[in-house]
Amino acid sequence: QFLMANKLDTAMWISRLFTVYCSALFVLPLLGLHEAASFYQRALLANALTSALRLHQRLPHFQLSRAFLAQALLEDSCHYLLYSLIFVNSYPVTMSIFPVLLFSLLHAATYTKKVLDARGSNSLPFLRNLLEKLNANQQNILKFIACNEIFLMPATVFMLFSGQGSLLQPFIYYRFLTLRYSSRRNPYCRTLFTELRIVVEHLIMKPSCPVFVRRLCLSSISFISRLAPTAA
């Protein structure tokens, strides 16, 4: 009754569980490397479906207008719909699957707890303990996801020069990264950029750091700071 009363949430729950399943079989290629590549695509397509459903839930009345598009781009679900479309036809990159896997796992765990509560407060205690441990590490997981989002930017550039990526991919991914940086709901991308800058500045200001390395790092920090959008 609970699942039928919340059909859209249940559909997203199932698609997230399928995303976790496909992502796990890509990261751990138990069925062979050839099959792993197909699971990579399936995971991203399932994530795209979840993101589209979530976006429809957040903005139910579609309008073909500039204002609607601007509003949609503020939603995290729209960001990861774009993310899935960026990588679904690209060369499989393990780093790119972790944000999809972990976000799906976190959201699926939250809804699984609701399903267990609907069954009874004492149902499946072992599974409840696992979900509580996952929830306790949520902040660390979100920071890890943000770190993946950031370091995928140079990875897309490397893929371009190695012949495994397209010319447009780094530019589209840069747009995705600016959306994540400006996210209203998830500040972890901004936080990680700040923390990385503090760490790098601390290291290059040490006397043992070569001058040319210090200048290169300061120039890089200045360049990245100019590219950063204004946070929402």
Question: Any chance you could write out the topology, listing elements then pairs?
Answer:
Layout: H1 2-5, H2 7-27, H3 33-58, H4 66-72, H5 76-87, H6 94-119, H7 125-136, H8 138-161, H9 169-181, H10 188-204, H11 211-227
Helix pairs in contact: 2-3, 2-6, 3-5, 3-6, 5-9, 6-7, 6-8, 8-9, 8-10, 10-11
How would you describe this structure in keywords?
232 residues, mainly alpha, 2 domains, globular, membrane, transmembrane
Give an overview in words.
This is TMM33 protein. It is found in: Membrane. Its main location: membrane. Keywords: Membrane, Transmembrane, Transmembrane helix. One of its GO terms (biological process) is membrane organization. There is one protein chain. The chain is mainly α and 232 residues long. The chain has two domains: 1-184, no CATH class; 187-231. The chain is built from eleven helices and no strands. The chain has helices spanning 2-5, 7-27, 33-58, 66-72, 76-87, 94-119, 125-136, 138-161, 169-181, 188-204, 211-227. Helix 2 packs antiparallel against helix 3 (33-58) and helix 2 (7-27) packs across helix 6 (94-119). The longest helix is centred in the first third of the chain and has 26 residues, at 33-58. It is globular and about 65 Å long. The model has no long low-confidence stretch (mean pLDDT 88).
